[in-house]
Amino acid sequence: EDDAELYVQLGVPVIDRLGDYRPSVAVLAPGLPAPEEELPFALPDGFGAMVMHTDEVGEPGAFYEPFSQTDSWILVEETLSVPAGVGYVVAWHPGRETGKLWVATGTVEDFGPEDFGEFGSWMTLTKTFHEVDPYAPIDATTETVCDDGGLDLPAQQNRDAAGCDFVPLGSASPWALIGLVSALRLVGVRRRRS
Known about the structure:
By secondary structure, the protein is mostly beta strands. It contains two helices and nine strands, in the order βββββββααββ. It has helices at residues 119-129, 159-162, and strands at residues 3-13, 24-30, 47-52, 61-65, 70-83, 86-92, 102-105, 167-169, 180-185. The strands form two sheets. It has a five-stranded mixed β-sheet, with no helix packed on it. The chain has a four-stranded antiparallel β-sheet with strand order 4-5-1-7.
């Protein structure tokens, strides 16, 4: 199959406690090379990975999203050559630290008529995620480091009790991940923000 270009952006909301938060992101697809490091999740059979760490990012880029009026720090912004077909984009924190991150893929925002009725709920969810007044949490949020003892991937057992739950996007994912899982088509990817 031919290669395709995939735009990947990894960001963190501008929240003081996340100023030094440095997650990693990987693109997984058949035909990519085997990763040079052990990842905190199992790769699907026949998949390789392109891994991007952000621990060396001293000055993240600034991003203002005018529709939701939210600010983020950009840690990764890359256009990658990947094999065409189905793959995954995965984000996590290498030190198992909880926090907030978002991943965008593609460069086109494509909203249809059916989406307009959802804008109110999207706005509330986005502002709540970014902790923008009046959507900031009442209780102070603290970050923690998750203990990997007893972690049974892909079952993710006992994660809620430890405050170290994961956020999979797509319940049909064959393997659970520590951070964020997003199934996507690597050809004709459309950027959608949640």
